[in-house]
Fold this protein.
Amino acid sequence: MNYLAHALLAGPAPADRAGGVAGDFVKGLLPGALPADLAAGVALHREIDAFADLHPAFAASRARVSPVRRRYGGIMVDLFYDHLLAVHWARFSPDETLAQFTGRLYAELARQPALPAHFAAVLPRMAETDWLASYRDMANVAFALDRMASHRIRRANPLAGAADELRDHYAGFEADFLDFMPDALAYAQQVRLSR
């Protein structure tokens, strides 16, 4: 799951959403230097990632990735699912538009006092260009993967052009996503309620 899906799956608590979106920027044992509520949001992020890795629909999506890119299949599917969530937003969040959700989310994140430093540095650009809603456009997914290929992952990798795989197998990825997302929402709610 990437930023948008983690933000939605985190539920209504602002600290859970902050932990969901910033979770990939936090390494090591929790709570570490984080306040308890933000650490709980990061823990939820990690549990959702573990759930996704074991879900048959998510595994089917990873298997759709070509052998040359399969090592990076999880990264690709995370972004593909954010695109599909943005496209199908009204199905999973009928009471709030995507623009309303992301606008509120960026404002909540800006008020969080203890975000990981690297994420706090990225947040203004994320909000200014509305990264999360921009995933609705396939060109922005392609841009994110191409940028990741050259800037985020230090060693040589085949992520450049990886959005072509979503274009080529769109119906399959979409079916997997639509199978996965209701289960992920139910699982995330169960985890939140059990704390």
